[in-house]
Design goal:
The protein is an all-alpha fold. Helix content is 70%, strand content 0%. It is elongated, with a radius of gyration of 31 Å. The protein is built from 21 helices and no strands. The relative contact order is 0.08. The protein folds into three domains: 3-100, no CATH class; 104-285, no CATH class; 297-509. Keywords: Membrane, Transmembrane, Transmembrane helix.
Length: 527
């Protein structure tokens, strides 16, 4: 069976979605640059990253399918991956938007910094497991072994948790069985080495104390042995130094294993749960005292999107008898319901992400605004939104030349650019500084509502010079009805968004410091 027959069969089964299905599958695999890419972020963010990454390629296929056969369009879209720089840069940007691998590494850092206490239910199991290799938890009370024992118990508790996940045959553990086996091998070797080093260092210190007639708890007297110049004292000092070196080397090896174990446990929690909060609760069941997850931005943006959709629906119902939609009526109504909330979602997510993780999106040390970021982030939003706008252009005006409609509708991209610019300006920490909360909210509303109104007038002015098919909606509307039907709802929508939303976005985006450089072991991290 040839590939053309496969495509034809898929188109028969799935309608016209057989070709897009093959394109989506190809770029699904291109998105996975790490082993277990999905486990480096939460599931909603991963799906968002996949959808954003594949959307321009699917749009390209959709355009080519009108001129070429499905098989030829598929081959051209697949070969587009060979274009230098852009596809891989786009993949990196989408992975960054999805939090890959920042989410897992940040959670690993939070685990490393959080207090840890072995659960009472796990302590008997750990005692039995460790006693088999000759390690008793109550042994080795010397000061030097305290940090060693704390690390060893944390590592053992983590391995016990991972073993339980493997026994439950969780999908993450089955997919990463080789990494788990490697961690288990390193842990087994570390167990025997720990017992050997602690016993040897304990015997060395015990012999020094006994020979020097030093009380076991008199460490100051033990340290004073280094000031004596006899041959015996020098030998004792050399033995003490060797014991300390063995303990230090053991601690470094434990830290290396613990670093990889924490990352593996964080990935297992992210892969097994839908949200970051539930992943943290799962890790808290092991014994970590993690701070509760911040509310985040996803639920907040969804509420804003629901409000925007409801506002657009009410506007359509109120103006249906006054305003005549150009082109296909149903496509025009769907365009109104989808594009406005989508512009809000894209801009809020972009600005929230950049402001939290990159210094160039925040004021500098002298308090000056990041003018470059404020003016450019809207361009990124407009580029992302352009394919969506082109799809609605084709659906709303199927009987007109597609290229001509798309080119004439380009000025409409001023809305995603303007929304992004206003949002990036208003979310700066210094905006309306030293004003009351109510005053800041009122000014946010006035700026956002006024900005939306100004963009509407700018588009109207451009329409007088370059005819835009979508703006045929205002033709035949009297001036006072235009004010009542378009200007006032636009200002009201912007004012409500600015008054009720921007302040929360400004506070949420200021909770996280600039991202730190990350160190990870590629082999044990599964890269």
């Amino acid at each position: 069976m040839t590939l053309e027959n496969v495509v034809g069969f898929l188109n028969t089964v799935f309608g016209s979605f057989g070709g897009p299905l093959l394109v989506a599958l190809f770029y699904w695999f291109r998105f996975h640059t790490l082993k277990g890419t999905r486990s480096f972020t939460t599931r909603p963010l991963f799906l968002f990253g996949i959808a954003t990454f594949a959307s321009p390629f699917l749009f390209t296929y959709w355009l080519l399918s009108h001129k070429l056969s499905p098989l030829a369009a598929i081959w051209l879209v697949v070969l587009a991956w060979k274009i230098p720089f852009f596809p891989r840069w786009w993949r990196g940007l989408c992975q960054a938007l999805a939090g890959i691998p920042v989410s897992a590494l940040s959670l690993r850092d939070a685990l490393a910094a959080s207090p840890f206490q072995v659960r009472p239910d796990d302590m008997p199991i750990l005692q039995r497991k460790l006693s088999r290799i000759g390690y008793q938890i109550d042994d080795f009370r010397a000061v030097q072994s305290t940090a060693i024992q704390a690390r060893f118990l944390k590592i053992s508790a983590l391995m016990l948790h991972l073993d339980r996940c493997a026994e439950r045959r969780e999908s993450f553990m089955e997919r990463n069985a080789d990494v788990h086996a490697e961690l288990q091998s390193v842990y087994d070797a570390l167990c025997f080495r720990t017992v050997r080093v602690l016993k040897s260092s304990g015997e060395i210190y015990g012999a020094i104390m006994e020979d020097s007639e030093v009380e076991p708890n008199d460490w100051q007297a033990l340290d004073s042995l280094s000031t004596r110049h006899s041959t015996v004292s020098q030998l004792q000092l050399a033995a003490q130094t060797a014991a300390g070196s063995m303990l230090e080397d053991l601690r470094k090896d434990m830290d290396s294993l613990l670093n990889n174990l924490l990352l593996f446990a964080a990935r297992a929690a992210l892969a097994g749960e839908w949200t970051l909060a539930r992943s943290k609760r799962r890790l808290g069941e092991i014994g970590f005292a993690l701070d509760p997850a911040s509310p985040g931005i996803l639920k907040f943006v969804l509420v804003v999107a629901a409000f925007a959709s409801g506002w657009c629906l009410l506007w359509l119902l109120a103006s249906w008898t006054v305003v005549r939609m150009p082109g296909d009526q149903s496509a025009a109504a769907l365009r109104t319901l989808v594009t406005t909330p989508l512009q809000i979602i894209v801009n809020f997510l972009l600005i929230y992400y950049f402001k939290r993780h990159y210094a160039f999106a925040n004021e500098n040390i002298f308090g000056r605004l990041p003018v470059g970021f404020i003016l450019s982030v809207g361009l990124v939003s407009a580029l992302i939104f352009f394919p969506v706008q082109a799809v609605f252009d084709l659906g709303q005006f199927p009987d007109r030349p597609f290229a001509d409609v798309v080119l004439r509708e380009l000025p409409l991209l001023i809305f995603p650019w303007g929304i992004g610019t206003m949002t990036a300006l208003l979310v700066q920490d210094s905006t309306w500084d030293k004003r009351s909360r109510l005053t800041r909210r009122l000014r946010d509303g006035l700026v956002f509502g006024g900005g939306m109104t100004v963009m509407l007038w700018v588009v109207m002015a451009i329409h007088q010079i370059i005819h835009m098919p979508v703006m045929e909606i205002v033709e035949g509307v009297s001036p006072w009805m235009f004010e009542l039907t378009f200007v006032l709802p636009t200002f009201g929508f912007g004012f409500v968004i600015g008054y009720a939303v921007i302040g929360h976005l400004r506070e949420a985006a200021a909770r996280c410091p600039v991202r730190r450089p990350v160190l990870a072991t590629p082999v044990l991290a599964g890269a």
